[in-house]
Amino acid sequence: MQKDVVILLNMGAPNDLSEVEIFLKNMFNDEYILPIKSPKIRSFVANLITKIRSKKTKKIYETLGGKSPMVAITQRLITKLNFVQQDFVFDYAMRYTTPFVNEILPKYKNAKSITLFALYPHYSQTTVLSSYDDALKAASEQGIEISKKIEPFYKDDEFNTAIASSIKSSLNDTKSAHLVFSAHSLPKKMIENGDLYEKHINEHIELLSKKLDFKGIHLAYQSHLGPVKWLEPNISKVLDGLKGERVVIYPLSFCIDCSESDYELEILYRAYAKKIGISEYIVVKALNDSTDFMRYILNKLKQTNASK
Question: pLDDT 10s digit of each residue in the chain, 308 long?
């Protein structure tokens, strides 16, 4: 296949309830997620966490219709991208659930070029590094050359314009509402060890704030897990300070909606917001398979090819 191939990478999520345990085991057995040096000990701990969390996690996905929205949205995005242009062939692979990258790569063994595009705006060892390391290892084992990797793109103006436009379209009067950028949290220890995630999140909000006019703009973190210290403030604490206000939530860490946005933000924290007296609570969808995001992806690839 003499084509320029682009493989979109993401963490993945259960395609049905039978994949919940597979998803959890694979995620917690990732050395970048659970940095335990011994593979045997890490595998043991991953299995233990899976046993503890699988029942609760299944209930979350049952609430969402038995699966994560991530795979279906990604499939739509791929289909649309392949329909609207002929310069690239798009496909996708997931880190912790099917389709895995080692299953996708053989399809493109004879491609003209292969570009990896991790759908994470901000760098973290838990996302960007994990996905690229996994893909490059699979490519090396299969004797397949990877031509390019797209680096974190939170500074790209076209990407940020798309986010700002999506947020603005979610309500009529932004000046009477507070905007909360909700980012997936990360253990503080990882930041102390040099992970750039928190720095990128703060810089991203600074850039986006220049394109938006709200009564207040806030950063919150979600999805804490376990007894270790995580990045703060937790979204519940931020909402506590906005009682009686109109609040708009944007899932800053995600390009594609997942359980963290569709369950945590849309269901769990909506109920909490109602309980504490938030007057209006709006969750903006991630860019997903929107025309603006498709346009950004294509322009990013063309710019990347032109610069090399």
Answer: 578 999 999 999 999 999 999 999 999 999 999 999 999 999 999 999 999 999 999 999 999 999 999 999 999 999 999 999 999 999 999 999 999 999 999 999 999 999 999 999 999 999 999 999 999 999 999 999 999 999 999 999 999 999 999 999 999 999 999 999 999 999 999 999 999 999 999 999 999 999 999 999 999 999 988 788 999 999 999 999 999 999 999 999 999 999 999 999 999 999 999 999 999 999 999 999 999 999 999 999 999 987 75
Query: Per DSSP, what are the bridge partners of residue 220?
Result: 182
Written as six digits, the tokens of 189 are: 């220890």
pTM of the complete model: 0.95
Tell whether residue 232 is among the known ligand binding residues: no
With H, G, I as helix, E, B as strand and everything else as coil, classify residue 211: coil
182: its two tokens: 């909700």
> In degrees, to the nearest 5, what angle opens at C-alpha 255 toward C-alphas 252 and 257?
90
CA 10 to CA 40: how far, in whole Å? 26
Phi, psi of 291 (to 5 degrees): -60, -40
CATH of domain 4-152+291-307: 3.40.50.1400
**Cis bond before residue 99 (omega within 30° of 0):** yes
Per the CB < 8 A criterion, the answer to whether 154 and 207 are in contact is yes
CATH number of the domain at 157-283, out of 3.90.1640.30, 3.40.50.10840, 1.20.1380.10, 3.40.50.1400?
3.40.50.1400
- In contact, 286 and 256? CB cutoff 8 Å: yes
**Which amino acid is located at 151 in the chain?**
E
For the packed helices 197-209 and 157-168, what is the interaxial angle rounded to 10 degrees? 60
184 is in an annotated binding site: yes
